[in-house]
Write a structure and sequence with these properties.
- The chain has 481 residues and is α+β, with helices and mostly antiparallel strands.
- The chain is 23% helix and 12% strand.
- The chain is built from six helices and 14 strands.
- The strands form five sheets. The protein has a four-stranded antiparallel β-sheet, with no helix packed on it. Strands 10-9-13-14 form a four-stranded antiparallel β-sheet. Strands 1-2 form a two-stranded antiparallel ribbon.
Length: 481
Amino acid sequence: MANFLIVAAAFLLAPAVGAPAPAPQVTAPASFGPDSQISASVQPSTTGYRVEYLVDGYSSATYHGPYTGTPTTIGAANAPTTLAASIPTLPPNPTATYYNTEGVPLNPMPAPFMPAGGLGTNGTLPRYMVESDFDFESIALGLYQEWIELDLFHDGLARFTDGEFDAAGLGDEARSLIEFMADQETGHSTLLSNMLGERAPKQCVYDYPYTTVREWVDFMQRVTRFGESGTWGFINHLDSREVAQLLSQSIATESRQQLIFRQMSGLTPMNVWFENGWPQSWAWTMLAQYISYCPENTTRLAWQNFPTLRILNNANINRYSPNDTAQDGSETVGPRITDPSRSNLTSGSCENLNVTGYGCGPAIAHNRSEPLSFPGKKVLFQWDAPGLPVGPNNSYVTSTTAGAPKFVGWSQQLNLTYSPLTVTGNNTGYTYQPLGYVYDSEGIINGTMAVMLTDLDLFVTPFNVSMLNPHIVALGLYQAG
């Protein structure tokens, strides 16, 4: 088996020095089209389940729905032994003392124009393979994510008609862009599979919550949020810097996908100064709920599945007045964490409203006269007890090691801030959305973000957020903006 991933590079050929410049085109072309062609052949797919062609020539898997069998394996993947119940908090690294007061290189350079330091800069030939259990489990999670996106992006194209897309404001060119984003996932899944080796997880069967084009697009902006943030959270902890390099080039496109799906959902494409990074177990908790079943002997993951936290009055992005969203959870299409907002409203819809500040059709950007959320908003919660089956073949189990919930954690940008939780009944409660700033006037809470109930207001920073995991009671997704 090959030990290295071979990366091919394409180079542009420049004209010879001194060659005459081409004459400017002064006549406008009379027509556009494929006047010249090169030969090509369609390559067969080698991964995933059988697909079928549905409406308008697009293809999707033959089945999307819940798992109905009996799991043969229960729980997350385990090592031969576990050394401790949790990782202790330690003081700063004693060797992390570099500080440059001169503004010039302080140490001998190993080569011209190469300052001392850095990782993987000593000329060693790169090895693009995972280098530890942490690497393997993290990239395997990333591959589960790429597989669902590959299926999800194709599914809506095949499920809905041209007329339904046109009614949602997404024409042929928008559908072509989504199809290209689906094709991107083919490359991403191939890359991650190569870096894992023979036990790379295979594509599974999925159970989706949407019934309309807008719900599909809204769901995709939520799925790409936990896909992106779930990678930023672990990428700089990987032992293999080579793997991290290629993964960063993959996740950069995921960021663009999330932005585009927000635009197609009528949300502003960018409303934060910094994207947020999440631990792997947060992403796996959200992703696993939509995996119905996987092929036999599919590689299992070691990450935790937290109980679900539902935001009962999560703003409906399809309302021109989000404050009119029902308070009982009925405007989310289902009970799972990242289920989209209902779009089939009988009144108050902003979908086809061509009024500045209130319309929410697909657009480059929208400014909302009434925001989706605001500091001081009363946010209503309902959460599950642990011990519920979830994920592929219902073979994982939700769990928590936390005590009684006391706080709500809000994870966004460079911050994780807290507000007090008021418990009102059996697994129900509320809090008020806190006010806080990153720098200057930039509010912390915005966009599509993670929220959680915790038993402790533990201080964490972007590089050690996973230290909070033992204190999480339940995990949710908040549509703040």
